[in-house]
Amino acid sequence: MELQIIQDSKLKSTIRIFLAILTTVSLIIVIYSDYLSIKSINVFFLPYYIIILGGEYFLHKKVGHLSLNNDNIEIKKLDEDNETILHSDIKELKLYVKKSTYFFFQTVFVYNIIIVLNNEKEKLLVISFLRKNKQKFLSVLKNYYKKEINVKEFGENGDRQFLKKSNLSYKEIQEIKKEYKITW
After folding, report:
1. Alpha-carbon separation of residue 69 from 83, 130, 136, 140, 159 (angstroms)
2. Residue pair 30/40 in contact by the 8 Å Cβ criterion
3. pTM strictly above 0.70
């Protein structure tokens, strides 16, 4: 499965400042207009329309691909050499949900992935994928659990997850630990 590696755009803070100024100006126009019309209300909500329809696109840029394969993980960055990490070299794979964003009528999941290698070196990647690829991503994760790769998933609030499921009961956790031979 191939996932996009992304990073924050250099324009991120500039775009946020621009949207804040646009919101302030829009609010002043709405307050000082003689009547509240649909046009003046739409002017106020214009920055929010921009964020909803394209904000995530402008705030992040694609810098490569991450391929989750049956026997290795391939990191293909645009400005660097490709890197292949064998599963046997992975000490721990940590997945942190950074956010889930609704973008152009699709849900985009953004994850921080930390790959801890046997030699204690860490690789930090930020990846994103669309909701339509969620099942494929979960099947790859399940395969990793079956191969006894030390995978740890965390939700947006830092809560532990298993295949994107949180709030698991004690009994469910014990069954998962037994079946996949993992530590919680």
Report:
1. 13, 18, 12, 8, 27
2. yes
3. no
Q: Are 21 and 146 in contact (CB under 8 A)?
A: no
CA distance 109 to 134: 9
Structure tokens at 40: 């003046």
Output the six-digit token pair for 162: 């298993």
Instruction: Compute the average pLDDT of residues 94-106.
Output: 67
Rounded CA separation 100/6 (Å): 14
What's the CA gap between 8 and 108, in Å, rounded?
15
Q: Is the pLDDT of residue 47 over 70?
A: no
Entry field: residues in the chain: 184
